[in-house]
Amino acid sequence: RFSCRRLGGGLVQAGGSLRLSCIASLRTFGSYAMNWFRQAPGQDREFVAAIDWRDTSTYYAESVKGRFTISRDNSKNTVFLQMNSLKPEDTAVYYCAAGIKPRRGDYWGKGTQVTVSS
Which of 23, 67, 81, 110 has the most CB atoms in a 10 Å sphere around its CB? Predict the structure, then answer.
């Protein structure tokens, strides 16, 4: 069973920064790619960022490239999403997900709200 203890999130002004963390309860955390997705009100869930299990390759949606950074610490079963230069359009519920490959969510954590005010 997958669960994710979320840290971070909340309300920030445009141009600000937030850091999301997800501590996953996966016994084989280091075997999974880790992903962040988000869902804005009235919209479909969309891919944000992914990192492979070796921590050697990262992937980003075009809309966040250059502003967001995904990283992981396999020794602590934790994946991070550093979000800089936030925009109001980044407002969404953010989800952490483990997958057998990047951009794929096989195990999902509960979302955390990020709100960016203009």
Answer: 81
- 5-59 pLDDT tens trace: 767 778 999 999 999 999 888 778 778 899 999 999 999 999 999 999 887 899 9
CB 79 within 8 A of CB 23: no
* Cα distance between residue 12 and residue 58, in whole Å: 25
65 sits in which H/E element = none
Say whether 63 sits in a helix, a strand or coil: coil
- Kindly report the number of other CB atoms within 10 A of residue 87's CB atom: 14
Quote the Cα angle for 11-107-45, to 5°.
50
